[in-house]
Write the C-alpha cells for this entry.
Amino acid sequence: MQKQNTMPTPKFKPGQSGNPAGRPKDKTPATLLRKAIAEDMPEIVKTLVELAKGGDVQAAKVLLDRICPPLRPQALPVNIETGATLPETGGNVVNATLNGSIAPDIGSMLIRALAEQGKLIELQEMADRLQRLEKLLEARP
C-alpha cells in the first residue's frame, strides 16, 4: 500500500490575512528605545561631546560615525588608448596596470567592464544572426 501525501487544510482563506489588524505600531524594540531616549537626546549628545573632548576615543568614534560619513575613494580619470578590438584594449589596460599608470583595482574593474561589453556584443551578434536565419526560413517556399 502506498502512502498518500496530503496537504494540511490551510488556516486562512486565500486573499485573507492571518493578521487583519497588521503589526502593532510603535512596538518594535528600536522604536521603543528611540521613544525612551528622545527627550534626553540633547543631554546625551552633550555628554558624548564632553567625553570626546576629554579624550574618550569611543565617544569620538560614535560622534564621527554619525556626523561625518566615511570617505569613499574617488576614481580619477583614466587615459588608456582604445584598441581596435576588445582584446587589444584589454591588453592596453593590462599594460597600463603593470607599468603603474593605473591602480590594480581600477585595472581589474576595467577588465571586468570590457568582459561584460564583450558579452553584450556577442549577444547582439547572436540576435542579428538569428534574425537573418528567421528571414531565410520565412523566404523558403
Remarks:
- Residues 114 and 120 are 10 Å apart (CA to CA).
